[in-house]
Amino acid sequence: MLTYLAHRLVLATITLFAITIVTFIILHLPPVDFVTAYAAQAAASGTAISPAEADAMRQAYGLNQPLYVQYWKWLAMVASGDFGRSFEYGRPVTEVIGDRLWLTVLLSLGAIVITWGLALPIGIYSAVRQYSIGDYVFTFLGFIGLAIPNFLLALIVLYFGSRLFGLSVGGLFSPAQQLAPWSWGKVVDLMQHLPVPILILSLAGTAQLVRIMRANLLDELRRPYVVTARARGLPEKRVIMKYPVRAAMNPFASTIGYLLPFMVSGSVIISVVLSLPTVGPLLLRSLLSQDMLLASTIILLLGVLTVIGTLLSDLLLMWIDPRIRLGRG
Amino acid sequence: MSDIAIEEPLVTGAESRVAVATQRQLIWWRFRKHKLAVISAVIVGLFYLVAIFADGIAYAPPFDTQASRSYIPPQPIHWFTAAGRFQPQVYALKGKRDMRTFKLSYAPDASEPRDLVLFGRGYPYNFLGLIPTDIHLFSVSDGKPQDALFLLGTDELGRDVFSRLVLATRTSLTIGLVGVGLSLILGVLLGGISGLQGGWADVVIQRVIEILRSVPTIPLWMGLAAAVPASWSPQQVYFAITVIISLIGWTELARVVRGRFLALREEDFITAAELAGASRLRIIFKHMVPSFLSHIIAAVSLALPAMIISETTLSFLGLGLRPPAISWGVMLQDAQNLQTLGLAPWLLFAAIPVIVVILAFNFLGDGLRDAADPYG
Q1: I want to staple B246 with a disulfide (CB 3.0 to 4.6 A). Which of A43, B179, B310, B338 is the partner?
Q2: ipTM of the assembly?
Q3: The whole model's pTM is what?
């Protein structure tokens, strides 16, 4: 168990390190360095910064020193929570991102919960009632879910939502609550707006997991121990739920680590289409306007949160699966 | 056990056929049983035919803008003439401006029917990029289809949606192929090293794959794609996007290749070849590769739709291919907001080939994967 934990921790650390390097590369990819871009932006908006100020910024980021020095300086600043200023908004990056990061997390976690909540019963049903009408319907829906890219589904829902029902499915708050400070009313408002994006986000994942669950459970149901249990006169519900479902859930549970990055990716896209106040639209805007400090911070934070989430899901898996707990996983 | 007489196996006609069949025949028989996969193979084939002959199938010049033809809804084909004779026709459109709202509205003018002809004349292009011609699969009798034929309507700039969709098919399908090609090289190389060499190389490559799979890909792609300089030509952008997509997409292929190498290493016929003194390269290319080629093909056909989705998503966000390049994602970008969709819902037609192709590739891949191991 300890080796498993240590293994996971080391891997998470290496992943974090890799993410910081990639983020650093993205930060430096544009041909013009971000301080020059910032100075140009400031000059254009009439609040020109003096060359001395620009030089001070360059100094702080070590822009005239070798790349590895720049990397360490940047890493040290980021680690202390200083992500720099956004050029476009003229405010610290953390302020611009604000609540958006947590709404992204909420959306992704909500989608994972719904994915599991839907995939588990549907998978069990499809396996137990193999080749029934319900099984065919779910299989068909599953294929559709796999074939429609997230953003397309969001677009179609947006169109038909407004066309047929006159609903505006975009956004996460109603106009009245948009700028209001957090209150109970705003939370309720958020809860009313969350289901549609969460359902869109979870469709593809659900389709995948139903297929995995169905296949796993079908394999288990053919095992002799199931026949034995039936022969002994156990009630059908117990025959299925007690052992085969639990055994089939193990490979199912291990997919959670890959589900989170998948959901975070998806949330970025559908947020752009449905104009949700998550980091998605902000990332797109900042990339298009080359606001690199903002963009790289968002990519870094998304990566870090995903790694932490994956680590937590590994711990969860350890708790579910005794084989891992006993060191044979 | 020696006292049990060995029974003569009962050989029926079908079984003897199976017994002497080659690997390729077995795979084909197994594949044929998966009806959906066979249909999907035909659909995928048709799409690639469209991609090859795109210029000939499109009837209107895909880049020519015409402000006066902006947002024309799809126009029906009239299959019979006014006299009741079978002759597909289209009516020329007459634009009329509503003087109250200043909105331009179009009405088909039944007094000016144009005959629809197969292999008629249209805009000039190079057939297969080589032979200059102006023959198109279908056109109208007066050789100016862009004035009368609007199968799927026009976009904001008055460009014909059908013709653009046909050319977009070429871009989107080939970017998938090129991307898979690059991932395949990376996947086979790294997966092969991982599976054959084992040891620390295997550990390192496996960890890299794990790291790549635990990072959200879309923000990464967006970050990398946004750095493609605006001054690059469409061809350069096309190549850059393909590289970015395949840099992250090779992991699944590498996993399959490694798995196959690991499984094959234990097989008796490989040991036999080793004992017979075959060189390492000979074992790999003569004995191992042929026996897992079918698995690779199946994995490729499952990786293709993922590539196509990636390109479409990036282009849709405005970070992938950029106009004047046409791909499904670029076309869907025009349909991004509700106002446009309300005004011109036919722009969503570009979503249909995306969904159809991805479904077809998924079924095809499923069928191939089942058939890849015909003894299972």
Answers
A1: B179
A2: 0.81
A3: 0.82
